[in-house]
Amino acid sequence: MTANSQSAVLGVSGYAGMELARILLRHPRLGSTPPIFLGRPDSAAEPLTAVHPHLLDNNGSRALQIEPFSWDLLRDRGVQVLFLATPHEQSRELVPHALERGLRVIDLSGAWRLEHPANRAIYKFSDEGSSVATAIQTQAVYGMPELHRDQIRHALLVANPGCYATSVILALKPLLAAGWVDTTHGIVCDSKSGVSGAGKAPSAKTHFMHAADNLSAYNVFGHRHTGELLEQLELAPDQIVFTPHLLPIPRGILSTIYVWFREPHQPAQVEALYKQFFAESPLVRIFAANHLPQIQYSVRTNYCDIGFHLSADGRRCVIVSCLDNLLKGAAGQAVQNLNLMLGLPEAEGLV
Amino acid sequence: MTANSQSAVLGVSGYAGMELARILLRHPRLGSTPPIFLGRPDSAAEPLTAVHPHLLDNNGSRALQIEPFSWDLLRDRGVQVLFLATPHEQSRELVPHALERGLRVIDLSGAWRLEHPANRAIYKFSDEGSSVATAIQTQAVYGMPELHRDQIRHALLVANPGCYATSVILALKPLLAAGWVDTTHGIVCDSKSGVSGAGKAPSAKTHFMHAADNLSAYNVFGHRHTGELLEQLELAPDQIVFTPHLLPIPRGILSTIYVWFREPHQPAQVEALYKQFFAESPLVRIFAANHLPQIQYSVRTNYCDIGFHLSADGRRCVIVSCLDNLLKGAAGQAVQNLNLMLGLPEAEGLV
Amino acid sequence: MTANSQSAVLGVSGYAGMELARILLRHPRLGSTPPIFLGRPDSAAEPLTAVHPHLLDNNGSRALQIEPFSWDLLRDRGVQVLFLATPHEQSRELVPHALERGLRVIDLSGAWRLEHPANRAIYKFSDEGSSVATAIQTQAVYGMPELHRDQIRHALLVANPGCYATSVILALKPLLAAGWVDTTHGIVCDSKSGVSGAGKAPSAKTHFMHAADNLSAYNVFGHRHTGELLEQLELAPDQIVFTPHLLPIPRGILSTIYVWFREPHQPAQVEALYKQFFAESPLVRIFAANHLPQIQYSVRTNYCDIGFHLSADGRRCVIVSCLDNLLKGAAGQAVQNLNLMLGLPEAEGLV
Amino acid sequence: MTANSQSAVLGVSGYAGMELARILLRHPRLGSTPPIFLGRPDSAAEPLTAVHPHLLDNNGSRALQIEPFSWDLLRDRGVQVLFLATPHEQSRELVPHALERGLRVIDLSGAWRLEHPANRAIYKFSDEGSSVATAIQTQAVYGMPELHRDQIRHALLVANPGCYATSVILALKPLLAAGWVDTTHGIVCDSKSGVSGAGKAPSAKTHFMHAADNLSAYNVFGHRHTGELLEQLELAPDQIVFTPHLLPIPRGILSTIYVWFREPHQPAQVEALYKQFFAESPLVRIFAANHLPQIQYSVRTNYCDIGFHLSADGRRCVIVSCLDNLLKGAAGQAVQNLNLMLGLPEAEGLV
User: Fold this and answer.
1) Are B207 and A204 in contact (CB < 8 Å)?
2) Total count of domains within chain D
3) Domain assignment of residue D182, yes or no
4) Cβ-based interface (< 8 Å): residues of C facing A
């Protein structure tokens, strides 16, 4: 497979699909073979601009279409990599067929992210426990390049991480890997996300009158991304609390994370630890000690920004992690994974 | 009928109904006989706080309920005035029965606002042209106290004005009534409304991702409130253009209105004309010449604020009119009408 | 002193002063003797509406003025209670003179809230350690009625609590007072506030371009309100972490608070504990177990709303506390204190 | 001069300067010779990221600096094109020196946009009427490529248009040039802009508490951009009214424009006229008849989007024009001008 591999995006009408389309169309190494955009099998073809008017092309020469999905179309057009920006249940159905047909898949849903049945229980997958699903789960690679870069290069199925999970895992992994955190103390992850994280379907929750001028916590002790935290950070359920909140902004996540250290540390030590951990990771930006990222700095970028403050006694640490939930939290990370799968530089088309 | 008359609100779950409940519960002359709140005939009773949690009562002693609608309930509870905060088609159905039962009705929908069939056509009422509907329309009084105060006092059916229409009619009526406006020049009404004007049902239009950080014009040359402007201002269709826009704010309307005068005028003359016209109208506030209202000044009040700027040659006038679309544009004006119908001071419970 | 006591507000031009004016003018027991509004000693008198146009009176008959401050004016007008909505350094200067003149004072600044010098250090008061200041601090009562109701009734100087502190202390006090919290685990308070909390002076932080579509943490391990938490909750500095954030909304605070219990508890027990603690407190609303308040429910009210979720093992508890930072977090609580000082029902004019 | 010409940006700390930096750094033909960023002559050098943290570079290898301005520095570094993102009075001072030194200048301020002294009067330039200023004004080219493409290619001084003016002129020019508009009727331009248009300096107007949840009209009959409309559209002052409004969003302009036609036209004719007029203009997008642009479609792009609705009688036309005030309304248009000056494709680096 080469950089000229043909890709396709199923589910381009949602927010993550929209951002995937935008990135792939401008990708310097993929632009010559634009992705194929796919909608429901029973839908009629329609212009991409009918769904996302701001992706309007001026010259009209690139009349991008959303075509109805079919396996034959993928085969006839020589598709090699399939992005799934589909609901998780649909991803569970499609992935076995895709792999059987020799496609490599980057799945943006939560369908294949979790190894342990207990963590998957919250999704209530209809094929849970089937031999096919179990076999596929074994193959799936959790698509966080900063943790699993080498496996992703050769993966057939990449399970693109959740947006909240990305912001928390990247912020905690260096400290936990170094053994600095006193996990008996309990880690607190207080996360806040813009409304695009709730999806494009109109609902009482996404109504402007509910979301604007408001803030609310939801799914306390019960958010789906919790399982990703437990597995990727190797924590027990009682060692971490994760609370998501709905922010009155279109996009962006800020996670405020509280840990207690086993031993006191200096700010310079913490900064050095982070910088070393992410030395080879072009899409994570570490802020200087006592300087914090804000949501505005990373929105509409593919970066995850991380900063921290240390208490005077050097035992308590507040980490702030920011990213754009549709980019580093979804479509940007998906293309980062694609780059690795195609042997391209990891940040190609993303900075 | 006295100030102790029992009132009922059908459609309390919507935004206008919510504001009606809030105002009526605090009304100094009606608080002792709180209104009856009604939902669909086939709904179960539920606490008002289940629908509008911010109306939570602390002490629990006033356990307000939304009860299923029935004519028998209205009769048994001695209801004399019925507020309809219902869709217009439903108001067309209910009003004949209500009047037959001797109820006085304040209808917040567009069902009975328009006298001329041509102006009503846009609503496509299913009973259009029926003898019952025609007879009722004849009785209906357009519920703008500043224009029809005396008729409202004795009305059986008050058609509460549209929110946009209220902001435009109050701003233009004094100038037109004085004969100052050169209507051959064309009057331009550029109106902007917060999202609550689009109703509580979730839709693509009211999704936070569409409304936030955006502005859009809609229903150009085709908004339902246009007929109210034509009838109340006695204008021909080609004498006025009305363009509504969706603002990224929860509530409030600002209309910017452009007129050409027949003769030049001084700012002091214009200010005096407005102040005289509204001298007896406690819920219209006229700003000093060259001082303009802003949306923030009238939001969460029952006022309509009006200001203007005059060109150096005294021939062109830009009028700015602001109000809260849910209050002076809906529930506040409805209670203003109730006050008149009950012989109370017009602004009772509203300032 | 009686309910007809004359009050005065110094610093009416700020947001807290604005809300004080609004509440006092509508207070059913004080409306007949409207407060006196005061600005800087060297300022000219100006209409209240010049500073807060939305407080416009329609009829013009109540031509409220902001008058230049002087002690003589307070004496001549018979002022008995003085509200200070002034910067803390100014409150340090004014309070000794006010008490000497026999005035009772409700100070909305941070000048007199903290008993221990270590907690006050962050303010760098210029009179720190002076015998006058020390004597006055001894007299000051922390103005949180739910904790110090009886002392407030007779207080000469009430130090009105900080907005963040109110939201955190009310949420934690019942659990700590009952001895349920394992304080060795560390309590985490993640608070988020609307922009009005940053004051009215234009700054880079309050610029729309910085605040909108953004979220940022600030003053980590160093916010002034931390001392109030330590003193009122009787905690050591290493037992609690408090992180404030700036929300892109005009007003409202939501605090998400994380505690570990010594023993497991049932949701019903936690709910009962809260309800009992606040049984006599009309301005605290306890939500049913597993139902959380949102910022919208308490904004523009004088309530503090509290809800919680318990982990499955009953050992970890996430509490969410909401209030309007300008009302229960400032002006509303100040009037609640005034009511107690005047022997009125605590919630008079506030519900 | 070639595409490798060295450029410099003075005033990079403001919003337009920030966007200039962003575009120039990613420009495919200029990226190899990054622009020089300049601050005040008496300022110390500082990293670009100190002022605009979101422009952070990950790898640290491109340690962009803002350097203190001096003519010697420009000479020593071989600067050939100077962008001025400075206040207009400063641009009046600097341009004579720059031209004398052989630099070509793209000035984003209002300093050199207006030919007629009457239209310039509102700026109160301190050098108004001086022979130097008059000579320079004669050389200045109004930098709207869609109208003055050929002159811009060879210009020494390009006066980059105002943001409001761009949105109105592009929308009206085709209709006026075709002679379709009945100018005796009066053209109404009702424009709405996001807060970035008000600049970066904190002020009461740009305070979040004023701008959010609000809408206000300002500078009625007196906005500085009016002169640009008169000159570029060749209209008399009484033929057009322009009213700007402040929107509660960070960026974007929507202008709603009302014209009366001399003769009735069909929608298809209007659409064809626009498409023909802008056939060679890659940064103007014409929407199909009766389809309107919204602010969201053009924000963060370099396009101006134009759509319209026609009344049933074909005599009245409402045109809606949208652009990003910092891009097509400022920095994007400035780079479009640079492209022309350097002989590059007009939209290079902008689509």
Assistant:
1) no
2) 2
3) yes
4) 185-186, 188, 190, 192, 210, 212-218, 220-221, 238, 241, 243, 245, 247-250, 252, 254, 256, 258, 260, 292, 294-296, 299, 309-313, 315-316, 318, 320
| pLDDT level of residue B351 (50, 70, 90 thresholds) | confident
Is B323:B128 a contact under the CB 8 Å cutoff?
Answer: no
Q: Is residue D349 part of a domain?
A: no
Binary contact (C247, A248; C-beta < 8 A): yes
Orientation angle between helical segments D226-233 and D163-177, nearest 10 degrees: 20
Whether residues C99 and C199 share a domain: the answer is no
Report the complex ipTM: 0.96
Q: Is D270 found in the same domain as D197? A: yes
Decide if C25 contacts C10 (C-beta within 8 A).
no
pTM for the model stands at 0.96
| Beta carbons of B238 and D186 less than 8 Å apart | no
Q: Indicate whether C313 and C293 sit together in one domain.
A: yes
- B273 located within any domain: yes
Q: What is the mean pLDDT of residues B30-48?
A: 87
**Which residues from B are below 8 Å from D256, CB to CB?**
190, 217, 243, 245
Placement of tokens 């953004």 in the chain: C214
**Would you place residue D87 in the very low, low, confident or very high pLDDT band (cuts 50, 70, 90)?**
very high
Check CB contact under 8 Å for C56 and B282.
Answer: no
A195, A202, A248 ranked by CB distance to B206: nearest? A202
Gap between the Cα atoms of A167 and A165, Å rounded: 5
- C295 and C337: one domain? no
Confidence of residue D60 (pLDDT cuts 50, 70, 90): very low
Instruction: Please choose, from the candidates A225, A253, A244, the residue with its C-alpha nearest in 3D space to the C-alpha of residue A113.
Output: A225
Question: B267-277 and B163-177 are packed helices; what angle lies between their axes, rounded to 10 degrees?
Answer: 120
**Do B307 and B229 sit in the same domain of this protein?**
yes
Chosen from C58, C323, C326 to mutate, greatest number of chain B CBs within 10 A? C58
Question: What does each C-alpha distance from C2 to B39, B321, C7, C33, C339 come to in angstroms?
Answer: 46, 44, 11, 12, 10
Q: Which residues, other chains included, contact B150 with Cβ-Cβ below 8 Å and sequence gap of 6+?
A: none
CA C132 to CA D319: how far, in whole Å? Answer: 70
Which residues of A lie inside 8 Å of B (Cβ-Cβ)? 15, 195-196, 200, 202-204, 206-209, 211-213, 248-250
For residue B189, indicate whether it is catalytic: no
- Residue with the two structure tokens 């001392």: C227
> Would you place residue D58 in the very low, low, confident or very high pLDDT band (cuts 50, 70, 90)?
very low
Q: Are residues C59 and C109 in the same domain?
A: yes
**The pLDDT of residue A154:** 97
Compute the count of residue pairs across chains A and C with CB atoms less than 8 Å apart. Answer: 134
- Same domain? For D140 and D171 the reply is no
Per the CB < 8 Å rule, is A207 touching B209?
no
A208 and B212: CB-CB below 8 Å? yes
Best CA proximity match to A337, nearest among A191, A140, A175: A140
Quickly state the pLDDT bin for B29 (edges 50, 70, 90). confident
What was the pLDDT predicted at B249? Answer: 98
Same domain, B110 and B231: no
- Chain B nearest-CA distance from D239, in A, is 10
At residue A61, does pLDDT exceed 50?
no
Counting as contact any 3 or more CB pairs under 8 A, the partners of D are A, B, C
Averages of pLDDT over each 10 residues, chain C, 351 residues: 78 95 88 85 89 65 82 96 97 97 98 97 95 96 98 98 98 98 95 96 96 98 96 97 98 98 98 97 93 95 96 97 98 98 95 86
- Decide if C198 is inside a domain: yes
Domain that holds residue A221: 163-325
Assigned token pair, B329: 């544009």
Nearest-Cα residue of chain C relative to residue A209: C296
Q: Touching A: which chains, 3+ CB pairs < 8 A? A: B, C, D
The CA–CA distances, whole Å, from C135 to A169, C132, C138, C154 equal 52, 5, 5, 17
The CATH number linked to D303 is 3.30.360.10
Instruction: Report the pLDDT averaged over residues B243-254.
Output: 98
What percent of chain B stands above pLDDT 70?
97
CATH number at residue C20: 3.40.50.720
When CB atoms are compared, the residue of A56, A285, A347 closest to D56 is: A285
